[in-house]
Amino acid sequence: NLQTEMIVKLSFIGEEATKVVLGK
Prior knowledge:
The relative contact order is 0.15. This protein is mostly helical. The chain has one helix at 2-23. The chain contains one helix and no strands.
C-alpha cells in the first residue's frame, strides 16, 4: 500500500530528524 509506505518513511525521517535535533 503506497499510503502505508509513505507513513513508514515519514516516521523514519521523523526519528532521524529527532536524533539530529537532540544531538545538537
